[in-house]
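Hey,
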Amino acid sequence: MAAPEIERLIKLIGRLPGLGPRSARRAALSLMKHRESLMRPLLEVLEACRDKVAPCRRCGNLDTSDPCAVCTDPQRVKSVVCVVQEVEDLWAMERSSAYRGQFHVLGGTLSALDGRGPDNLAIGSLLARVEAGGIEEVILALGATVDGQTTAHYLAERLRPFACSITRLAHGLPLGGELNYLDQGTLDAALQARARLD
C-alpha cells in the first residue's frame, strides 16, 4: 500500500519498545505530515545523539562527556555506589532526587535462559572500582525478579571480601498502597522487611 520507504520507517519505529505496528504507523504518518516541524528536528537530534552520546567509562550512564555529569558532580557522595541494571534505572533514581551518590550500570542481569553470564555484564569494572578504595557502601538496586535477585546474590558474594557494606533496596509495600491490592510476593517481601517503630 505505502511506498517502500514509508514501510521501512514504520518497521523501524515499530522496533522501539512499547510501540506496536499500529502505533508505529501513526507515528510514521505524523512524521510525514509534519516534515518541517517534527521530522527535520528529529533527524537532527538523532544524528547529534549518534555522534555525541556514548556510555560513561566509569559508571555506564549515557552522556556527551566522559566521565559523565553524574560522575563529575562535586556535590555527590563519592563513597557510595548504587548498582542498577540499566541506564533507565539510573535515570529513574535521578528523577526521584532521593539519592546523591555514585552509580554503576551493569547492562542487564545474570540469566541462564538468555545466556548472560558475569562476563556479559559490567561486573569486572564494578569490582575494580570497589577494589581501588574509597567505596564504603554498595547499594544493590536491582529488580525483584528472579534474575535480579540472582544477580544481587552473586554480586554480594563477589563484594564480600572488600571492606564495604553491601545493602539492597527495600522490597514490599509501596507508599500509598493498600493491602487488598497487593500480590502474595509483595506481601511476603513487606513482611520480611518490616521495621520497628520505636
